[in-house]
Predict the structure.
Amino acid sequence: MSAPTTSSPPGRRADRTHYLYIAVIAAVFAGIVVGFAWPSVGVAMKPLGTAFIALIKMMISPIIFCTIVLGIGSIRKAATVGKVGGLALGYFLAMSTVALVIGLVVGNVLHPGEGLVVTDATRSAAEKAAGGEAQGTVDFLLGIVPTTLFSPLTGESVLQTLFVALLIGFAVQAIGKPGQAVLRGVKLVEKVVFRVLAMIMWVAPIGAFGAMAAVVGATGWSALAALGQIMFGFYLTCFLFVVIVLGLLLRSVTGVSIFSLFRYLAREYLLIVSTSSSESALPRLIAKMEHVGVSRPVVGITVPTGYSFNLDGTAIYLTMSSLFIASALGDPLSVAEQVSLLLFMIIASKGAA
């Protein structure tokens, strides 16, 4: 893997997306102003953010399906897929565990949630929202199997989409030369899907404005201060994990600096932060990883799978928010409870998508 450059993947027209990112930044600040100046108006803007995230989620299953099928279908030997997939899953498990541990350590230092007053009305609303039945491990595993072969493409389960895409990818590979026609068809579908997603991304400023205005309008200064504490702890933990753990690992394996990778993926990071949705950067991330020298089969397997099984940021957030809620309710978690939480989150974080 060569050192990343800041050039765009070949074959693209003149890049005009920098206008989009500028518009998103302006929309975020505009949302903050509206939320503080006119809270009721800000809250009323929430459907704009909700609609944008719904549009993004609408595209995720087709994108992952096409990427996985093309990635596996382009590998001649199934053993290669097994090796790459096995290494990826082992790496995902190890990194998520490290992220969870760092999250617990930082949480115990900062004690997020202390001093936050939770009203009875808030407690009642939270209990009502969490009133569904808990899902056991067996139910979780059975839930990976879809109702029909193509139902994941119209459903919301990313894991079901991954499962079906793996099956179809291996099936296409097994039938040999005739399977190339299937791959060509999937490739055309992928182009259409990515074009639709590119169209959706141009309304990102509207979605960012609505989401930010709604949050600020609903919470105001007091809640923002309390939430600011947990967000500071969250981003501090992410920084330590990415720069120290992932940075050292990247340098030792590839010789690439983590800061070079930051510059290469700067626009994708900005898009993720502004929309609060990592899915919005998936297609550009796939293209950039291929452009920097990672083979398409490896990208096709590891990137979409990582979106479901390597949610290190989500793992950190889960532990941090659990400590936050416990402290806010006046019942901080003991060391033994935190160890139990860690063991549970190692499994739970894999299905967080």
